[in-house]
From TrEMBL:
<dbReference type="InterPro" id="IPR037883">
    <property type="entry name" value="Knr4/Smi1-like_sf"/>
</dbReference>
<dbReference type="Pfam" id="PF09346">
    <property type="entry name" value="SMI1_KNR4"/>
</dbReference>
<feature type="domain" description="Knr4/Smi1-like">
    <location>
        <begin position="43"/>
        <end position="154"/>
    </location>
</feature>
<protein>
    <recommendedName>
        <fullName>Knr4/Smi1-like domain-containing protein</fullName>
    </recommendedName>
</protein>
<dbReference type="InterPro" id="IPR018958">
    <property type="entry name" value="Knr4/Smi1-like_dom"/>
</dbReference>
Length: 171
């Protein structure tokens, strides 16, 4: 399953857990349970994909965009009515890439999402092209040894909790 793109199955299984209001109950730290909403957007069109073809995207993120042009995962009152994870649309990825290049002077990295109270989820273009670990947090605190879909799968299994911190004491 290492090279299999299963993002559609992943998104479908999450959608199947949602109620009629696009919400589900999820566990948080210290045994709390909260009702969280999940929002998916209409898929990218072929024209949109061609318009932004200059941005090298991971294959599984490209597949995600063909299902949903961005998403907001786990929005609830527990975290102030903002999504724990916003996955960016093509437009927002392009804007983010331009911001990184023009303002931060970083040419080989662009954001594909944002984690609330944390950092951007970014792709390193050089690592992506070389088949390396291309996914990390923009603050430099974590480089992931996962593809996008593997990362998202773990995030969903952890119910929006930072799975990469679960082996550490709670803050």
């Amino acid at each position: 399953m290492e090279n299999e793109v299963y993002i559609e199955k992943l998104i479908t299984s999450l959608k199947n857990r949602l109620d009629k209001n696009s919400a589900l109950y999820r566990n948080t730290y210290f045994g709390n349970v909260v009702l969280s909403k999940v929002k998916f957007y209409p898929a990218c069109t072929d024209e949109e994909l061609k318009k932004y073809s200059s941005i090298p995207l991971p294959v599984d993120y490209l597949q995600f965009l063909k299902i949903s042009n961005g998403a907001e995962l786990f929005t609830d009152d527990y975290k102030g009515s903002r999504a724990l994870l916003e996955l960016y649309s093509l437009d927002k990825i392009f804007e983010g890439k331009n911001f990184y290049v023009n303002n931060l002077k970083i040419e080989d990295v662009y954001p594909i999402g944002h984690l609330l109270d944390n950092a951007d989820l970014v792709v390193n273009i050089r690592d992506l092209r070389n088949g390396g670990q291309y996914l990390s947090l923009s603050d430099g605190s974590k480089k992931f040894n996962y593809t996008f879909q593997e990362w998202l799968d773990k995030f969903i299994i952890a119910q929006g909790n930072e799975f990469w911190l679960l082996d550490q004491p709670f803050r």
